[in-house]
């Protein structure tokens, strides 16, 4: 398994980062990380776009989901059938969130290993970003910016609902809670890691923010899903 990861993910990402660092970024590690992150997100855009779109629709569908669960709380088979019909009607995959995690995690692990093993070595003799920030060291500034970017990303991904509706929908309340818990965890994690990881996180989050704004703009019709039908 380790050999597969090394051959298929770690080595190609390392080779691409080294090439960007030596050519496009002119030996500026920060610029190389920014370019690499954008390239990764562009290549994986169809997966991220599908996953983010499904998650957005799922959040708008939560009132419907809650109604089905209440109407058929003692009929699990009918409940499951109704939920699948709802998801199928709106062409969403309820497991898309896990798909996004599965796609992102190997890339993040590969970059973490690269920065852990290679920073300061022959491949990346300079660890500076724009000549003033050492990406091989921990940075509270990078951690704060990364947490803020994640907060904005989470905030704009939530559907606009009435407070009274949120109080009746545990999943909606959980989603709003995670908007704050996620950035707090991000800050805590990145405070203990090299700033290079935080920079990758920031650029990826900014890409996600732009993507989420695009998705929100393209799906105004889903505002009416905030009120479940009475049938």
Give a written overview of the molecule:
Helices cover 73% and strands 2% of the residues. The chain is built from 9 helices and 2 strands; from the N terminus they run αααααββαααα. Strands 1-2 form a two-stranded antiparallel ribbon. β1 (128-129) and β2 (133-134) form a beta hairpin. The chain is elongated, with a radius of gyration of 21 Å.
Q: Give the amount of beta strand, in percent.
A: under 5%
Low-confidence runs: 222-231
The biggest sheet amounts to: 2 strands, antiparallel
**Helix count?**
9
The spatial strand order of the largest sheet comes to 1-2
Chain-averaged pLDDT:
80
What integer value in Å does the Rg equal? 21 Å
Question: Structural class of the helix and strand makeup?
Answer: mainly alpha
**Termini gap:** 51 Å
Quantity of strands, as a count: 2
In helices, the fraction of residues equals over 70%
Shape: elongated
Order of helices and strands: HHHHHEEHHHH
Secondary structure layout:
Layout: H1 2-22, H2 29-43, H3 45-71, H4 76-89, H5 96-118, E1 128-129, E2 133-134, H6 140-157, H7 163-167, H8 170-190, H9 195-218
Antiparallel strand pairs: 1-2
Helix pairs in contact: 1-2, 1-5, 2-9, 3-4, 3-5, 3-9, 6-8, 6-9
Question: What's the short story on this structure?
Answer:
By secondary structure, this protein is mostly helical. It is built from 9 helices and 2 strands, in the order H-H-H-H-H-E-E-H-H-H-H. Helix 3 (45-71) packs antiparallel against helix 4 (76-89) and helix 3 crosses helix 9.
